[in-house]
Write a structure and sequence with these properties.
- This protein is an alpha/beta fold and about 260 residues long.
- The chain contains ten helices and eight strands.
- The chain is globular.
């Protein structure tokens, strides 16, 4: 692990392999450990970088200054400091929002983007988004982060054979700073690209799980609004597809990366 000073905070990251850069961005309340099944696979042929976003993992935990726009500028500066001109950004859930925003705010930094079980408009997800915002904030206030971590982990990995994945994710989530998690969550739910989605020119792969929180049709609808996007559906998977179906996910991603 290495640390680098970015926008008055430190980001913890790992850097493996050589070649075209894959920058992997984890989900809300998690860490770069989300990508443990991808790093050894892709670092054989690519330079694979994983990073703990601000307020997460081993990176700095500021009191305020959260949100997709702030984290996007962290990623841009991070790339500058590592002298990376272009990268393929692979973003899971909240990481997908950051990848979307990078493609809008700093398109010249983008080779391709890969969006995994995410949305370009967390602030416009209809009933699903409203219920998520209300229920999770209420849960945090009344029951705390440790119990929320347990519930999220179970919803992501409910099968008996997934207990190791469930326990590992619960451990990562419950170790979050309460304020950092809350700030990251509410700012994420207030973020959206709106019509800017249609300006993205980068080749885009949207990966959807057939049992994700939002239906495949939700992802298909925004793929159709984009200039150069395609949808891949991974069966028998829930929100954490990079963890619960790593072989299928890696195969889909590898095909997209090789197809210029």
């Amino acid at each position: 692990m290495s640390k680098i000073q970015v926008n008055n905070i430190e980001l913890d990251y790992e850097d493996h392999g050589k070649g075209q850069v894959l920058l992997l961005l984890h989900g809300l309340g998690s860490t770069k450990k989300d990508w443990d099944a991808q790093v050894p696979f892709f670092s054989k042929n690519y330079r694979v970088i994983t990073v703990d976003l601000r307020g997460h993992g081993n990176s700095s935990i500021p009191t305020d200054d959260y949100g997709v726009l702030v984290m996007t500028e962290d990623v841009k500066t991070f790339m500058d400091l590592l002298q990376i001109d272009k990268a393929t950004l692979v973003g899971f859930s909240m990481g997908g929002a950051i990848a979307f925003q990078m493609a809008v705010s700093h398109p010249n930094y983008i080779h391709k983007i890969v969006i995994v079980n995410s949305s370009p408009d967390f602030n416009n997800m209809g009933t699903i988004g409203e219920e998520l915002l209300n229920s999770r904030t209420q849960f945090l206030k009344t029951k705390g982060l440790k119990l929320l971590a347990k519930e999220i982990a179970f919803n992501m990995f409910p099968e008996p054979h997934q207990f190791k994945l469930r326990n590992a994710f619960e451990e990562r989530c419950k170790n979050n700073n309460h304020n950092a998690y809350y700030q990251a969550f509410v700012t994420l739910m207030n973020w959206g690209l709106g019509a800017q989605l249609e300006t993205i020119k980068a080749r885009t792969l949207v990966v959807a799980s057939d049992m994700d929180y939002t239906p495949v049709a939700f992802k298909q609808a925004y793929v159709e609004r984009m200039q150069n996007a395609q949808l891949a559906v991974i069966k028998n998977s829930r929100h954490g597809v990079v963890l619960d179906q790593p072989d299928a996910f890696n195969k889909v991603l590898e095909k997209f990366l090789k197809n210029e």
